[in-house]
Design a protein that fits this description.
3 helices, 55% helix, 67 residues, mainly alpha
Length: 67
């Protein structure tokens, strides 16, 4: 049997690839966020502070409508 004719599963992938497939866990995605939580919190606080400053310093707009 040549290397091109390795045992294949029903979906066409070599059986050795199926054995090496590892599961994806939610922790693998959340850990980088947890690791950088202070940076994320700092960016959030700066954005909220700038938005509050903009609202506080912008001149009020009054509208009146007659019926």
């Amino acid at each position: 049997m040549s290397t091109d004719q390795k045992a294949r599963s029903g979906d066409g992938y070599p059986q050795e690839w199926l054995a090496e497939e590892e599961e994806i866990h939610l922790v693998d995605f959340l850990y980088p966020l947890f690791k950088r939580r202070w940076l994320i919190l700092l960016i959030l606080l700066v954005a909220v502070g700038l938005a509050g400053l903009f609202v506080f310093l912008s001149p009020p707009i009054y509208e009146a409508r007659a019926v």
